[in-house]
Amino acid sequence: MMTTTNSRIGRRMLVALVAVFAMVATLISLPVNLAVAETDKLTVTLTRTDDLGSEIREGDRLTFRITYKNNTDSALTAFPRESNLSDVVPGDTKNCRWVNLAAGATKQCNFAFHIATAKDAQAGTFTPMSTWDATTDRDGNNVLQAGIQANADPVTVIPVPDPLETPHDYAIGEIVHLATPGSGGFPCHRIPALTQAVNGNIIAAWDGRPRGCGDAPTPNSIVYRISKDNGRSWSKIATAMEGHPAPGLEKYGYSDPSLVVDRETGDIFLFAVKSFQQGIAGSRLGVNHEDKNVIQAAVTKSSDNGETWETPKIITEQVTGDVATWRARFASSGEGIQLRYGEHKGRLLQQYAIFKQGVRGLFNHSVYSDDHGETWHAGALTAAYGDENKVVELSDGTLMMNSRTGAAGGHRYVSYSEDQGETWGPWKVENQLEDPVNNASIIRAYPNAPEGSLRAKVLLFSNAKSTNRRANGHVRISYDDGKTWNEGRQFYAGSMAYSTLTPLADGTYGLLFESDEYQNIDYMKIDAEWLGLIDPGEATPEPTVEPSVEATVVTVNGTQIPDISVTPVVNVAVNDGATV
């Protein structure tokens, strides 16, 4: 009897224990089930759509399809928080954010792509990645679920030899494509800058733009090539200032390069805009380095002829003359100068344009250094309605600013400084120089010419010679400090935009420009023969008294008019009507 009773009790205890264990198992599994449900609000997948296979080459373009499914019973937004692909996150030229994705709906985006970079090839692989949030709003602020990963398999990336590394004897006037879409892993290349280092290296720099051709605040990088043999070959594309295409406030980029060489020390300065959340027009007032809505002025330096570059330094406060009213600033891309004459011989100048708080139009000014780039100072502003501008030192030491403007009816503005860039006179419309509101370049043809010499008066000017279209690239000559200009010679017939000239040590000139609707960064070497440039010689004209002859002048009725002199004037035509 006892045996039977004990047996029943044992069975009951066993059943009870099983029930307890089942309850515990249920409790233990409950959070796991909730977590799974949480990760299922939105499903995102990333699929390759190109046919390049698992092994690609530097410069190849990978394409992707992003598929998202709303697993909830109400609409939500599939918000792309971060990706190493282009045209995915908000701020790209296109993006794959899907607003109001209906309950249970599945949608696709086919914008995403990646161009394999030199950095990918150096690493050997590239892994496509994206991070998503499910949100209730389009701006990604009200997050239902964060950190949803959608990645694809790694791809092997093989480096490709750059044909420009092989020396070639290019003809004068022959175009060399330094960058085309995809070069260096960038779909777009814009904003050329050009100079020659004291050792002869030719340095060509520009924006490498990773998300289409967008200006700041796109996370652009400043990239460059170097030629060590006077343009016969060029190094691979390298990076001087690297943008960071991260999400949100971590994103930053560099744009609009300009190069300035200190020929006394050999240092090269590279100026650029640094942007975070705002472009030029949207920048807030202030100079706070930590304010992501203030556009910053950046500069880096090379002390080895452009081979390597220091970490960029922010000089916003130094280049902002009035913190209370100067709202935004940017360096004019291309090349600055070092003064050859006068009290401040050796002064470095980089041109800037700024917006003033509550005032329409851009204002120009010079930023200068008298201590070889240790510190920089902001000169006074021009009148309104300037823009990207260049400066040239004339034969008597006067500085002439030549500026883009939208206020001169398809022509250039000029202004003069008598104090080596610290202040500027009023604007004058230069009706001889057509311009379609575009960046241009002006240089001395003979940069080492003695002060006051005929050679010091010779200037070269490059731009799109048109009043309304960025096309028809020309280089024009002045023999008289910019008072008159010849018609020039065309270097590119079709679409071209920004251009920059620099004199080379062998007496030729380097010309870097954008062509074919911002498709290419092109280099060309030109010389005096190509230009039709007549060398006026080394002579420095002696000061002369204007010749006059005495004459007796009478009226028709015979009355003598006293104190009259006649002064003969002779104009000598030199090359397309310019006079000396």
TrEMBL record:
UniProt similarity note: Belongs to the glycosyl hydrolase 33 family.
Biological processes per GO annotation: ganglioside catabolic process; oligosaccharide catabolic process
Organism taxonomic ancestry: Bacteria, Bacillati, Actinomycetota, Actinomycetes, Actinomycetales
Family annotation (InterPro entries): Sialidase (IPR011040), Sialidase_fam (IPR026856), Sialidase_sf (IPR036278)
PANTHER family reported for this sequence: EXO-ALPHA-SIALIDASE, SIALIDASE
Coiled coil (UniProt feature): none
Gene Ontology CC annotations of this record: cytoplasm; membrane
UniProt superkingdom: Bacteria
EC number: 3.2.1.18
The Sialidase domain, residue ranges: 201-509
UniProt xrefs under Pfam families: BNR_2
Catalytic activity: Hydrolysis of alpha-(2->3)-, alpha-(2->6)-, alpha-(2->8)- glycosidic linkages of terminal sialic acid residues in oligosaccharides, glycoproteins, glycolipids, colominic acid and synthetic substrates
Listed GO MF terms: exo-alpha-sialidase activity
Organism, scientific name: Boudabousia marimammalium
Alphabetized Gene3D superfamilies for the sequence: 2.120.10.10
Protein name stated in the entry: exo-alpha-sialidase
